[in-house]
Amino acid sequence: MSATLGHILRRAARSLWENLSLNAVAAGVIAAALLLGGAFWGAMSTLNDAVEVWERDVHLSAYFASGVDEARQRAVLAEVQAMPEVEAVTWVTATDARAYLEERVPDIQPILVELGEDAVPASLEITLRARYIGDETLSDFVTRLQRAEFEELDYGKEWVERLTAFLGLLKALGAALGTLLVMAAVFLVGNTMHLVTYARRAELETMKLVGATLQFIAAPFLIEGAVQGLIGALLAIGALSGLKAVLLGRIQELVPLGQAPLADGSLGLSTVLGLLTVGVLLGVVGCGSAVLRFWRQAP
Amino acid sequence: MIRLYHVSKSYGSAQVLHDVTFRLSKGEFAYLTGASGAGKSTLLKLLYGAEAPTSGKLLVGGVDASKLGPARLPLLRRNLGVIFQDFKLIPNRTVFDNVGLALEVIGAERREISRRVNAVLNVVGLGGKGERRPLDLSGGEQQRVAIARAIVNDPAVLLADEPTGNLDGAMAVEVMEILLSINLRGTTVLIATHDNGLMERFPHRRLRLNAGRMSE
């Protein structure tokens, strides 16, 4: 068994060396396919991260009506904290709110003096759990939040509606583009492997004519495919890391992504392993199917 | 060693072989002759399993070649040596590697491959040329490489499709003499050719194909 494996590995190594240019083309095509797919996946991940940050920014401000004393405000705060949709609540007293406003907009102070002590109401700043941020669930929550103690509820209804619609569109677009990209990559790699095998048809045909089994012919080809895939994946990883380092900083300057995990410039272990696996699979499956197709056609 | 029973072969509506029946015994030497398009190459293809007959039965070395699946095809070919007019050598491999391929596919050890390849290269007069590439050799030498590859694993049957078709007179005679010497060692040899001069110089049994029908 080990002698057979050694023999297969020797044949694969020799074949890789003898067909260096063909193997380089195959590895290059796999790299291009992975680069395309990886760049798309990276863009989608970055967008998802950005959307998550924006989602976390969706919060409600519930303004207390004038005349609701602090003890009652505390009681309402406890009620709101107990609601399952609520992740966090910050109680902003009228004094705090006024101080905050004066600090942010110094010119407003004379107006506030004119309006008197009740000019700025106390409020609850409510952050929702992510899964309750959808359009309908949020409306439902707002209905249940309504109380006599609140004068106004402000939750940026339009913003939430737009965000939800944008997310839906993004997911649909991503699925369609992703499917197209996978199909294009498989088509590209499959055809390249077919051409690479076709260039070696004399060798394969002769092997079959002298009594080689399909396994004998295919085994070194599969190893070659795996090596092509591995090299292609490594090239794609290098290119993607470079692209990310250059582009992501620029994007972050234009669009604030908060704590987006891709922002550190590295691809991450799971992405690297994923690209290596997909690369090797593309090489092996592409080579395997090309050899099988040849085997069926050869005399 | 080779038996055909009422074998016919058609490609669509074109019938290439009609009800061919013959028998070739162990150690026999025979020519398969006929004009171009008579069906010689098709008959050889049936014998080495590249094509399946439309009807009839053919046995090659005890193997039913008319019902071979893809998995059993290599088993038939390992007991056969086949020589082609266009040699079918791998150009980027050495002469040694080309000949050794027939042993490599049956899982022979490297030492055994080396011993047998060198021995058979001496038989066909190519001793010392193992490291050359096929394209560095003359047509006659390339054909001898193909013969060496066909006989290196001592096949019971040797099939040759116009083996002298691309060679000049002297080289053709050399190749024929090698094939006859192989036959003398007990190998059944069937040569498809339409070279009457060669058949008269080396007279043996002739199987004649005329528009797909066989006669002797």
Helix-strand topology string of chain A: HHEHEHHEHEHHHH
Helix content of chain A: over 70%
Rg of chain A from C-alpha positions?
Answer: 31 Å
Average residue pLDDT of chain B: 90
User: How many strand segments of chain B?
Assistant: 10
Instruction: Please give the order of strands in the largest beta sheet of chain B.
Output: 6-7-8-3-9-10
Q: In angstroms, what separates the terminal alpha carbons of chain B?
A: 18 Å
Count of the domains of chain A: 2
Under CATH at level 1, the class of chain B stands as Alpha Beta
Q: Give start-end ranges of low-pLDDT stretches of chain B.
A: none
N-C termini distance of chain A: 29 Å
Overall pLDDT of chain A: 81
- DSSP strand content of chain A: 5-15%
Q: What Rg of chain B do the Cα atoms give?
A: 17 Å
Helical coverage of chain B, percent range: 25-40%
**Which secondary-structure class do the elements of chain A indicate?**
alpha+beta
Determine the number of helices of chain A (DSSP H or I, runs of at least 4 residues).
Answer: 10
What's the overall geometry of chain A? rod-shaped
Q: Could you say what the CATH architecture of chain B is?
A: 3-Layer(aba) Sandwich
Main β-sheet, spatial strand arrangement of chain A: 2-3-1-4
Q: TL;DR of this structure?
A:
Chain A has 299 residues and is of the alpha+beta class. Helices cover 73% and strands 8% of the residues of chain A.
Folded structure, characterized:
The complex is a heterodimer of chains A (299) and B (216). With 299 residues, chain A is α+β, with helices and mostly antiparallel strands. Chain A folds into two domains: 2-54 and 163-297, no CATH class; 59-155, Alpha-Beta Plaits. Chain A has helices at 2-18, 20-56, 70-81, 94-104, 109-115, 135-145, 157-199, 201-209, 214-254, 269-297, and strands spanning 59-64, 86-92, 123-128, 150-154. A four-stranded antiparallel β-sheet of chain A has the order 2-3-1-4. The two termini of chain A are 29 Å apart. Chain B is of the alpha/beta class. Chain B is 34% helix and 27% strand. In chain B, the strands form two sheets. Chain B has a six-stranded mixed β-sheet, with helices on both faces. Chain B has a four-stranded antiparallel β-sheet with strand order 2-1-4-5, with helices on one face. In chain B, strand 9 (205-210) and strand 10 (213-215) form a beta hairpin. Chain B starts with a strand and ends with a strand. The A-B interface holds A 3-4, 7, 18, 202-203, 205-214, 216, 295-296, 299 and B 45, 48, 50-51, 70-71, 74-78, 80, 82, 88-93, 101-102, 105-107, 109, 149.
